[in-house]
Amino acid sequence: MNRVPVLTLWATIVARRLGYDEDEALTLGKAIAGQTAAAKGKRLGLYAGKTASEAEALREERQARGAESIEFMGRVIPCLRTDKGLRTLDDVRPADPAAVRRYLESKFGDALPASARASKALRRVSSPMNWRRPPWTSTCGSARPVRQGRRVGGSEDALTSMESTDWPPSGVGWASNALGSSR
Questions:
Q1: Angstrom distance (rounded) from CA 139 to CA 163
Q2: CA 147 to centroid of chain Cα atoms
Q3: How many Å apart are CA 66 and CA 81, to the nearest integer?
Q4: Which of 6, 74, 90, 125, CA to CA, is 20 to 30 A from 35?
Q5: Contact call for residues 22 and 177 (beta carbons, < 8 A)
Q6: Rounded Cα gap, residues 8 and 106, in angstroms
Q7: Where does 54-138 show beta strands of DSSP type E?
Q8: Which 3-state string (H, E, C) describes 97-141?
């Protein structure tokens, strides 16, 4: 599976845990995944990104609209406070949480509720200091695959605290707010 939807879901769940409402969290998740994908695309030379003058014009337009920046998961996210709450910005337009919801539903399909529960379970067994790491990395920072609570060829990680009877973790389905902020 493409990591962008996984990161979108993970960042959304982290935002919910930090107290953002569902719509705010969805747009934060989208922003984190988008910035991460853009950085990788630039690093791989797939595109050059904005020129300095384009970036400055965008910054000025955002500032004129009253945008602010927040730090979330190690990134600076441009946002705008609207009458519906905090929304991240797609260039200068507030992001649409319904579009992010549709995106996640299209990428995960019927597996979305289980994926959300699994991400929430990972969040519960890891410390808040590890939340900025995406769920496919171990608590040791390795990106090696995890199988049955052990990194392949390595030591225990956060999943070892979960017994096999705990999987899949119980929780509410997507329709009942699988992104809820249960602690």
A1: 18
A2: 22
A3: 8
A4: 125
A5: yes
A6: 13
A7: 68-72, 75-82, 85-90, 93-94
A8: HHHHHHHHHHHHHHHHHHHHHHHHHHHHHCCHHHCCCCCCCCCCC
By C-alpha distance, which of 107, 127, 101, 104 is closest to 14?
127
Give Cα 53 distance to the centre of its chain. Answer: 29
Tens-binned pLDDT, residue by residue, of the chain (183 aa): 688 999 999 999 989 988 999 999 999 999 999 999 988 888 898 988 889 999 999 999 999 999 999 999 989 999 999 999 999 999 899 999 999 999 999 999 999 988 888 888 876 666 555 555 555 444 333 333 333 343 333 433 333 333 333 333 333 333 334 444 443
Contact assessment for residue 37 and residue 4, using Cβ atoms and an 8 Å cutoff: yes
